Amino acid sequence: MSVQNFHHETIFALSSGRLPSGVAVIRISGSQTRFVVETICEKVPEPRKMIYCHFKDIQGNVLDSGLLVFFEGPKSFTGEDCAEFHIHGGIAVVEKFLEILADFKSCRLAEAGEFTRRAFANGKMDLTMAEGLADLISSETETQRRLAVQVASGAQRNLYMQWRQKIIQARAFIEAELDFADEGDVPGSVSDRVWQEMSIVAATIEKHIEDGKRGAMLRDGFHIVIIGAPNAGKSSLLNLLAARDVAIISDEAGTTRDLLEVKLNLNGVVTYLTDTAGIRETEGKVEKIGIQRAKDKATEADLILYIEDLLEPINVETAKFTAPIWKIGNKADLSNKQQNDYNYVISAKSGDGIAQIINDLTDYITEKTKLQNDVVPTRRRHIDLLNNCKREIHKAYSSTNLPLELRAENLRHASQYLGRITGDVDVEDILDVVFSQFCIGK
């Protein structure tokens, strides 16, 4: 999309749910909004005051009647003139209304996420707030909702802006010491104090990243993978944990050839439980693919449930997996063997031992996703940029053998990484700090 079109085209879209419905909400934003409202409703209501009116096409034919609310820019979601038409949610009514809007000059159907994109472009929100809004819309559990609300409120942005300001200020002090040491308004050597402050910021970011890993689990779900040899009871375990028949159970080895995933809600945390193909040496091409997918999935897991048949235990290599492993022995009702090598012993046939696993899973996942702070990074993008920022700060305060110019450059990179998270990188704001605090050149 060109910049010119972005600023001058008026966009519209159905903003409510699937049709048919009792009420449908059609949103419009852009410079043509006022003209469109005047044409369809014969008048523009007082901003933010909802009115009842008849909606007409360009020829004056009544299409429907309903409610209208007008938001005058910049006091609107997008920062532009906006309006919402609340009409009856019939398929034909909505299609005709959208067709009428498309007939207006410079008006077109909005692209996915374009209203929010305009809000960002017009300074109504930063990238983290936009991402929080998207997470709020897609949230499925109460914990996801609370996390998304926190991000969408701007709390995350405020925290990052505080860190960024500290980094910019530190860089300003270093550059002032380099360039303006002979000025009376510039303090003496401030390097020691600056580097001490930066080490504290880096440690704070490190803890924030750790909380972010928990936040990512809350947002994206906790992933559990069941592995084991063929006929160990993986599919039976999946069915018991899911409390329904999800997987086909058979005495025939190799019944499960592909990944089978079920979504659970454990104490407000979305949990993905995946059954996999039995791991063994085989010549079958299809089964080989399934086994490789099982291994790949296990490498990405947050927790692995490794199940063995107590009657005929077959070892599966797990050294390459980094996630914690809970070892489960199956067919306890048929075996009298020593069972000390297992975290849990169950009978998939009778269900004995499953309740304990479910209780422990719930407690484990709750602990793993428990947030120490309300403000946490929730996306991989945030965590990657925060790691980069922390690394640059560490380079700056630990590279005591390097010139101050290079260490100041590390701080510049660190502040830019934070700015990329929020979407407002501006390298010139270092000048504001220099001139406002040191009165240089007065």
CATH class of the largest domain: Alpha Beta
Q: Kindly give the count of domains.
A: 3
Q: Which fold name fills CATH's third level, the topology of the largest domain?
A: Rossmann fold
Give the count of helical stretches.
14
Measured on Cα atoms, how large is the radius of gyration? 30 Å
Which overall shape is indicated by the principal axes computed on the Cα atoms? flat
Derived structural class: alpha/beta
Uncertain ranges = 1-6, 426-442
DSSP summary, beta strand count: 12
Mean pLDDT: 83
Strand order of the largest sheet: 3-4-5-2-1-6
CATH-scheme architecture of the largest domain: 3-Layer(aba) Sandwich
Order of helices and strands: HEEHEEEHEHHHHHEHEEHEEEHHHH
Largest sheet, strands/sense/barrel: 6 strands, mixed
User: What is the first-to-last residue Cα distance?
Assistant: 46 Å
Strand content: 15-25%
The helical percent reads 40-55%
In terms of quaternary structure, the protein is single chain
Q: Could you name the CATH homologous superfamily of the largest domain?
A: P-loop containing nucleotide triphosphate hydrolases
